[in-house]
C-alpha cells in the first residue's frame, strides 16, 4: 500500500474562498489593464480641451459635455443611432426567429448542415460582406435591375439609410439566430403537443406556449444585436457613403479626421452609457419574465 503524504505543519490547505480568488485574479487583472484603464482614460479625456493641431490641453472642463448635449446635431445623431439600432434589431429578430425555430426542431445531419450555413457568414470579414452588399445593391446591381425589369422604379438602396439598414440586418442575423437557439432550451416539444391535444390552434399555440417559453432567447438576441448595431462602424461608413451619420462613424471622424480626441472620448462614453441602459432594460425584462 502506498503511504499518503502528510501535510506539513507549516502549510495549510487553501480554503474555497482563497481558491476562488486565486482563479479569478488573472482575469481580473486582464480586465483592469485591458478594459478599465482605457475606459478611465476615455473619461478623463472627455473633460479635457482639444487644441489646434490635434493636441489635448490637460485642464478640467465641461465644454465637451455641454457642447454635445446642447448641439441639435449631436442630439439628432444620438436619436438616429438609437432608432436605427432598434429598427435593425427588430428586423433581425423577425427574419431570424423562424430560422432559429426551424433549426431547434430539426435533427440529425440536416440540423448540423443548417447550423453550419448559419455560422458560415461569421467566418467572413464584415468588410467583405459589406462590399458584397454594395455590389448587390448598386445602381447596376441585380436587385435594382430586377426591380426595373418588373417595370417599377427602384428606390435608392445605396449610400443612404436604406443600404445601412439592409447591410446591418444581414450582418447581425447570425448573432440573433445563435442567441435565439441558446434561449430555446426551455422549449419542450411535448408542451406543444399538449397544447394541440387540448384544441389550441397553431396561432394560439405559438402565442401562448412557444412565444413565452422563447422570450428569454428573444431578449438575449435583442440585447446582443442592439449593442452590435450601435457600435457598428464598417457597414454604416461604407454603405452610407459618408451621408449617414451615426455615433460610431462620428467617433471615427472626430478621432481620425479632425483629431478632436476629447470630443471623440465624450461620444465614446455616451455609447457606453447607452450600453448600460440596454443592460438595465435587459435585466428588467428577465426579472419580469422570471
From TrEMBL:
<dbReference type="InterPro" id="IPR035906">
    <property type="entry name" value="MetI-like_sf"/>
</dbReference>
<feature type="transmembrane region" description="Helical">
    <location>
        <begin position="209"/>
        <end position="234"/>
    </location>
</feature>
<comment type="similarity">
    <text>Belongs to the binding-protein-dependent transport system permease family. CysTW subfamily.</text>
</comment>
<feature type="transmembrane region" description="Helical">
    <location>
        <begin position="113"/>
        <end position="137"/>
    </location>
</feature>
<feature type="transmembrane region" description="Helical">
    <location>
        <begin position="73"/>
        <end position="101"/>
    </location>
</feature>
<feature type="transmembrane region" description="Helical">
    <location>
        <begin position="267"/>
        <end position="286"/>
    </location>
</feature>
<feature type="transmembrane region" description="Helical">
    <location>
        <begin position="157"/>
        <end position="181"/>
    </location>
</feature>
<keyword id="KW-0812">Transmembrane</keyword>
<keyword id="KW-1003">Cell membrane</keyword>
<keyword id="KW-0813">Transport</keyword>
<dbReference type="InterPro" id="IPR000515">
    <property type="entry name" value="MetI-like"/>
</dbReference>
<feature type="domain" description="ABC transmembrane type-1">
    <location>
        <begin position="78"/>
        <end position="282"/>
    </location>
</feature>
<keyword id="KW-0472">Membrane</keyword>
<dbReference type="Pfam" id="PF00528">
    <property type="entry name" value="BPD_transp_1"/>
</dbReference>
<protein>
    <submittedName>
        <fullName>Spermidine/putrescine transport system permease protein</fullName>
    </submittedName>
</protein>
<feature type="transmembrane region" description="Helical">
    <location>
        <begin position="20"/>
        <end position="40"/>
    </location>
</feature>
<keyword id="KW-1133">Transmembrane helix</keyword>
Amino acid at each position: 500500500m502506498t503511504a499518503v503524504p502528510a501535510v506539513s505543519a507549516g502549510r495549510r490547505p487553501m480554503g474555497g474562498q482563497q481558491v476562488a480568488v486565486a482563479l479569478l485574479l488573472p482575469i481580473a487583472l486582464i480586465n483592469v489593464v485591458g478594459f478599465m484603464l482605457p475606459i478611465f482614460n476615455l473619461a478623463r479625456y472627455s473633460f479635457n480641451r482639444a487644441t489646434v493641431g490635434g493636441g489635448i490641453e490637460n485642464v478640467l472642463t465641461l465644454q465637451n459635455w455641454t457642447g454635445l448635449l446642447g448641439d441639435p446635431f449631436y442630439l439628432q445623431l444620438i436619436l438616429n443611432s438609437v432608432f436605427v439600432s432598434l429598427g435593425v434589431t427588430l428586423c433581425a429578430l423577425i427574419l431570424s426567429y423562424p430560422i432559429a425555430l426551424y433549426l431547434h426542431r430539426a435533427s440529425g445531419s440536416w440540423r448540423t448542415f443548417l447550423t453550419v450555413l448559419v455560422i458560415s457568414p461569421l467566418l467572413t470579414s464584415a468588410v467583405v460582406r459589406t462590399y458584397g452588399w454594395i455590389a448587390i445593391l448598386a445602381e447596376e446591381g441585380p436587385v435594382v435591375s430586377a426591380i426595373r425589369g418588373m417595370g417599377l422604379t427602384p428606390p435608392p438602396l445605396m449610400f443612404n439609410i436604406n443600404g445601412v439598414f439592409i447591410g446591418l440586418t444581414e450582418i447581425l442575423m447570425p448573432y440573433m439566430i445563435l442567441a435565439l437557439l441558446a434561449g430555446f432550451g426551455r422549449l419542450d416539444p411535448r408542451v406543444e403537443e399538449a397544447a394541440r391535444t387540448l384544441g389550441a390552434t397553431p396561432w394560439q399555440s405559438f402565442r401562448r406556449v412557444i412565444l413565452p417559453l422563447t422570450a428569454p432567447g428573444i431578449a438575449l438576441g435583442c440585447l446582443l444585436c442592439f449593442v452590435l448595431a450601435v457600435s457598428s462602424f464598417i457597414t454604416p461608413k461604407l454603405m452610407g457613403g459618408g451621408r449617414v451619420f451615426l455615433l460610431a462613424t462620428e467617433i471615427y471622424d472626430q478621432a481620425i479626421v479632425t483629431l478632436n480626441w476629447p470630443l471623440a472620448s465624450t461620444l465614446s462614453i455616451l455609447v457606453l452609457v447607452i450600453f448600460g441602459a440596454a443592460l438595465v432594460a435587459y435585466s428588467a425584462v428577465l426579472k419580469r419574465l422570471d
